Amino acid sequence: MDKTPLDIEPGEIPRRTRRSLLIAGAAAAIGGGLWKWLNSWSRIDGLNAPFRKVLDFNAAIARGLFREGTRAPEYERSKAVRSFRRNGDIGLADLKIEDWRLQLVGVEHPASYVQYSKDITLWMYGTNPSTAESVDTGTGVPKKLVTHEDDAKGADVTMKPMEMPEKAHRSIPGLLLTMADVKKLPHVEMVTEFKCIEGWSEIVYWSGVRLRDLLAAFPPHIESASQLYSTEFVAGLPEYIAFETPDGQYYVGIERQVALHPQTLLAYELNGQALTPDHGAPLRLVTPLKYGVKQIKQIGRITYTNTRPRDYWHEQGYDYYAGL
Ligand SMILES: Nc1nc2c(c(=O)[nH]1)N[C@H]1C(S)=C(S)[C@@H](COP(=O)(O)O)O[C@H]1N2
Ligand SMILES: [Mo]
Question: What region holds the Oxidoreductase molybdopterin-binding domain (predicted)?
Answer without folding.
Answer: 176-313
